[in-house]
Design a protein that fits this description.
Order of helices and strands: HHHHHHHH
Radius of gyration: 19 Å
Number of strands: 0
Largest sheet: none
Number of helices: 8
Shape: elongated
Low-confidence stretches: none
Distance between the termini: 19 Å
């Protein structure tokens, strides 16, 4: 897996905390402020396998030890809803990843004189606009993600 080092880093952060010693509020702050912030830079460039990160966060939230799982009383999707709608307000990492990649497309459209935009246009869509570009054959992982 390409993102194995990032997942290992997240597991180390979660494993360093004893979930039995943290209150629900402490777990919430740890997940929101630390764990959801770590992959933000990479999510702005690559399409991420967010299922592994979400399952690790759910295991930590529900009190599983290491690879063991605790009882998951609610789905992770319900926990990602805003608090005013009955959720916990965790980020839906798949939607967040798509939003960050959409921002890259917006930059390619609006800053077409930037170095990145000129290189991408020359390599991947020389005869059209970024919105009408096709995937092609030999693409970088960044371009396939965008």
């Amino acid at each position: 897996m390409v993102f194995r080092s990032l997942l290992d880093r997240l597991w180390k952060k979660l494993g360093g905390w004893k979930e039995k010693l943290l209150s629900r509020a402490g777990k919430e702050v740890l997940l929101k402020a630390v764990i959801q912030a770590i992959p933000t830079y990479l999510m702005g460039v690559y399409k991420f396998p967010v299922d592994a990160i979400s399952s690790a966060m759910a295991r930590f939230w529900w009190g599983g030890k290491g690879e063991a799982r605790g009882m998951h009383w609610l789905s992770w999707e319900k926990l990602c809803k805003p608090k005013c709608m009955g959720g916990m307000g965790f980020k839906d990492l798949a939607v967040f990843n798509d939003a960050l990649l959409g921002r890259q497309v917006w930059r390619l459209i609006h800053f077409h004189v930037s170095l990145l935009s000129r290189v991408m246009k020359a390599k991947y869509y020389p005869n059209c606009d970024v919105l009408f570009a096709s995937l092609g054959h030999s693409n970088s992982f960044s371009w396939r993600s965008i």
